[in-house]
Each structure stands twice: as C-alpha cells, then as structure tokens.
Design goal:
single chain; 291 residues; mainly alpha; Farnesyl Diphosphate Synthase; 74% helix
C-alpha cells in the first residue's frame, strides 16, 4: 500500500511551483494596473495547483500502464512501481481535475465570463492526452507546447484577465517567461530520462534533440525567460533589479546541467528549477507594489 510520502512523490511536489508561479506573475500585472483581487488570485492558484497535480497523477497512470516506467531512473512512481493500483491512480487524477473544475467554476462565476469554462475544459483535455490516449502528444516531443500554452499564457494571462478584465502586454511577456522556465523544468526532467525513454519509445523533445542539444536548450530557455523578466523592467524598473538575481541563478543552473549530471544527480536541478520559477513569480509580484 502506498504511503503518504509515495502519494506526495506521485503528485511531483518538485514541479508544483510551475503551477503557482504564473498566478503570482498574473496577479503582479493586475497590481500594476490597479485591479488586483486576492480572492480571485487564490482561486486561480487553486485551479492551477489542482490541474498540475492532476497532470502528474495522469502521467503516472498512463506511463505506468504503457510500461514506460519499467526502467525508470528517477524516484519510483505509484503505478509503475506497483505502489498503487492503476485504477486508484487514475481516480486520483480525475478527482484532481474535478476539484480544479469546481474551483474554476467559482472563479468564472465571480468574473461573469462564462466562456472561460471552455478554456478550462481545454486545459483538462490537454492534461489527459499529454501521456493518455492512443497517440499521446507527450510521446511525440510536443510536451513543451502544452506547457508554455497552459502553464505560461493561459495561467498568467488568465489570472490577470479574471482580475482586471484585460490582457495587457505585461501578462503576455510574463507568461512567456514563466512558461519558458516551466519548459526548462520539463526538459531537465526528460534529460534525466533520455536513456529509458528511448528504450520505451517515449520520444520527448529531449530524446529528439539528443543529450547535448537538450542541455543547451535548457540553458537557452532560462536565458530567454530572464530576458522576458528584464523586458518587464523597461516600464517597471524594480522588476529588472530582481531579474538580475534570477539571471545569475539561472546561469548557475545552466552550468550544472552542462556539466554532464545524469540520473538521480539531476533531481536536485529539477527541484531548483522549480524554485527558480517560483522566484521569478515572487519578484514580479513584490516588485509590482513599488513600480
């Protein structure tokens, strides 16, 4: 029987900053435009967090039943590691999606923009078919596309929109920044799994690029994200000051990845990349009060 720690590992706690960070950025942009609503920000964070947990459980289930995790180098997963039955893990995924839908419905009701329900439904569908279904797009190297769309633009611009009723340029630039760091998070996770994913036919972008170019792509994503943060500083200078620190941190992480770390040694980089994304969001939010 799976322990609480097993379920926390299955929820991929190290990746959860990817869900909260765009909400921080989107709320920061709302503050810049004098339209922040903390109730709506908390609801948006709840939706994003529950969707991320749902994605992680869905991936655990789908990869497990496909046998992708048979030769896994990272921490054992619930389904592939035999810690929980596939049916239970699948139920956990759909329970997370259902809770996200409920919280999202409350947020939509507050905004009165009922068309946002369609956006939420698209997010759930994309989350499931990342590794689920007969032709999962995550196995085709398209996972980063899903990440930057839903954990970059939808989460960031959506957060700002539900608070201000607008989608200013800062939200799109900030969404690009956090989306790219989320893509880097996925990239370093997949760099670790290149040997086993190649054997199981999971052709992630890291597999398609190959080890050397995937490591280079990781660094380029972080550099581009830093550039987005500095762009926000053009009109809101306190953000630029914080982004200098983010850029230095990103450079250190890129150097660690380029050094050739493999297997479990990359787990620390995975965690720190998630913290980097969280730092990006915190910088934008806090600096927005002084801009």
């Amino acid at each position: 029987m799976a322990t609480i720690n097993d379920w926390l590992e299955g929820a991929r706690v190290r990746t959860l900053p990817a869900s909260v960070s765009p909400v921080l950025v989107g709320t920061g942009v709302a503050v810049m435009h004098d339209g922040a609503s903390w109730v709506r920000a908390l609801l948006a964070a709840g939706v994003a967090l529950l969707l991320q947990i749902g994605v992680n459980f869905a991936n655990d289930y789908s990869d497990g039943v496909r046998g992708t995790d048979e030769f896994r180098t990272g921490p054992p997963r619930l389904t592939g590691g035999g810690k929980a039955s596939p049916q239970v893990v699948k139920a956990a995924a759909f329970a997370s999606f259902a809770l996200a839908g409920l919280v999202g419905l409350i947020l939509v009701a507050l905004t009165g923009q009922w068309w946002l329900i369609a956006v939420g439904a698209a997010a759930v569908i994309a989350a499931w078919f990342y590794t689920g279904g007969t032709r999962p797009y995550g196995y085709m190297g398209l996972g980063e596309v899903f990440v930057i769309i839903f954990f970059g633009y939808v989460a960031t611009v959506g957060t700002t929109y539900t608070q201000t009723g607008t989608a200013p340029w800062e939200a799109w630039v900030g969404g690009t920044g956090v989306g790219l760091i989320a893509c880097a998070l996925l990239m370093v996770n997949n760099i670790r799994d290149i040997p086993t994913d190649s054997l199981s036919g999971k052709n992630t972008l890291a597999v398609r690029l190959g080890d050397r170019r995937a490591r280079l792509a990781y660094g380029l994503m972080l550099a581009a994200a830093t550039a987005c943060g500095l762009t926000l500083g053009i009109t809101h200078w306190p953000i630029a000051a914080g982004m200098v620190a983010i850029g230095l941190w990103a450079g250190l992480l890129s150097a660690r990845v380029r050094s050739g770390l493999t297997g479990r040694d990359l787990i620390g980089v995975l965690r720190d990349t998630g913290l980097l994304e969280l730092g990006f969001g915190v910088v934008v939010l806090l600096a927005s009060f002084t801009a």
